Amino acid sequence: MRAVRYDGTGLYLSDIPAPVAGPGQVVLEVTAAGLCHSDLAVMSRPPEALPYKLPITLGHEAVGVVVDVGAGISGLAEGDTVAVYGPHGCGACRTCRSGAENHCPHARAAGILPPGLGADGALADYLLVPHSRHLVPLRGLDPVRAAPLTDAGLTSYHAVRSALPRLPPDGTALLIGIGGLGHLAVQILRALSSAQIIAVDMAADKRELALRCGADTALPSTDTVPDQVRDLTEGVGADVVFDFVASDATLRMAARSLRPGGEISIVGVGEGRLPVAVNLVPLGAVVRTPYWGTQSDLVDVLALAREGRITVEVEEYALEETPLAYERLARGNVRGRAVVNPARAPGNAPGQACAEEQRG
Ligand code: NAD
Ligand code: ZN
Ligand code: ZN
Predict the structure, then answer these.
(1) Which atom of ligand 1 is nearest to the CA of 37?
(2) What cofactor does its activity depend on (predicted)?
(3) Closest-lying ligand 1 atom to the alpha carbon of residue 178
(4) What's the rounded Cα separation, in Å, for the pair 173 and 217?
(5) Closest Cα to atom 30, ligand 1: which residue?
(6) What is the C-alpha to C-alpha distance for residues 192 and 174, in angstroms, rounded to an integer?
(7) So where are the chain's domains?
(8) Tell me, which fold does domain 2-151+294-352 have in CATH?
(9) What is the rounded CA–CA span in Å between residue 39 and residue 53?
(10) CATH superfamily ID and name for 155-288
(11) Long-range contacts for 280-289 (Cβ within 8 Å, ≥24 apart)?
(12) Separation of 89 CA from ligand 3 center, angstroms?
């Protein structure tokens, strides 16, 4: 089968054996795989700094059709269309049994790694899923628009749900970075809260997307954001700040925009640092570093999409066009989420004409 592999030096399309489902396992034919900014973070690190061996197949946002069901599985049949819950835990501990496999304290030591982030991922014709509990039925959702819900949607939903107790109905949420995650976080907030939503992005088209997604205000990313947030909140500041970038500049912006007793949710995996001590962040502040989401968060986020409360803005690519899609993501040119559809023929990728012109 075809697979987009990363070996520590670059991406390449490879022909590798298709997986076969062992006992308790499932193989999916991938119908869509989303590209996340975290993949760029992985590819920017020295290979020896990664907690797993290369090469691997990338892709940690997946939906597909069941084509091979291992022995001992019931309630799943060939032809079922499913989304993949990515943050696999041990499945047995108290945390996993609560559905929060994203916080399993045993997974790393047991060598359990998410698809595309240690195990072979979804940028391929087929994906091996190690246990049927990781699969959630799509129930009518369009695969290409549903794939990003498994990470961009799930992570945003988890971050928003965790912060909701600190966001009163007449409060204010500030979101920094309106990309794949951010544009869904705006919609999720709109669906779950009546709070004022202020979005910040350095790109004008992302600010326009934020407003279309339901933000009340969209601001360029400048040093004046904290003052503007205070002007928009009668001098109080934001109740909750979601930072989908996490550079030194955006974390400073987050701390300076926050009200006393508010919450900073650091979702981005940028290299920035936020010094936390009395008088460095507002009194009573809570700082959270959410990671992906729980199993029930995924069920909820798929339900929000089915209800038409959230819609993923997508750019669709063929498998062969994955490097071009990552290039566009790195340059900040992807609006919403780039999604690879392995069944799509190459030749009509967004931005392809530009890339070809640039290459001469
Ligand atoms: P993306 O590239 O789609 O979006 C990033 C957005 O931030 C873009 O719109 C860009 O214009 C904007 N931006 C960049 N620098 C900015 C600045 N200084 N001020 C304001 N806006 C700025 O990325 P994504 O896939 O949505 O991921 C967002 C972040 O979340 C990444 O760091 C990613 O690695 C991380 N992530 C974390 C988790 C988790 O579990 N915590 C899960 C998925 C992704
Ligand atoms: Zn991701
Ligand atoms: Zn566990």
Answers:
(1) 25
(2) Zn(2+)
(3) 9
(4) 11
(5) 268
(6) 15
(7) 2-151+294-352, 155-288
(8) Quinone Oxidoreductase; Chain A, domain 1 (3.90.180)
(9) 15
(10) NAD(P)-binding Rossmann-like Domain (3.40.50.720)
(11) 280/255, 281/255, 282/237, 282/255, 282/258, 284/260, 285/255, 285/258, 285/260, 285/261, 286/166, 286/262, 287/263, 288/159, 288/162, 288/163, 288/263, 288/264, 289/265
(12) 5
Q: Which residue puts its alpha carbon closest to atom 20 of ligand 1?
A: 201
Residue 359: the pLDDT is: 45
Quote the pLDDT of residue 33: 99
Distance 155 CA to ligand 3 centre (A): 19
Tens digit of pLDDT for each residue in 146-184?
Answer: 999 999 999 999 999 999 999 999 999 999 999 999 999
Q: Which residues contact 109 (CB under 8 A, 6 or more apart)?
A: none
Mean pLDDT of 61-85: 97
pTM: 0.97
Dist. CA 177 → ligand 1 center (Å): 6
The residue whose CA is least distant from atom 36 of ligand 1 is 268
Q: What residues does ligand 1 touch, defined as CB less than 6 Å away?
A: 36-38, 41, 151-152, 155, 176-182, 200-203, 206, 221, 244-245, 247, 249-250, 267-270, 290-292, 329, 332, 334
Q: How far apart are CA 256 and CA 230, in angstroms?
A: 10
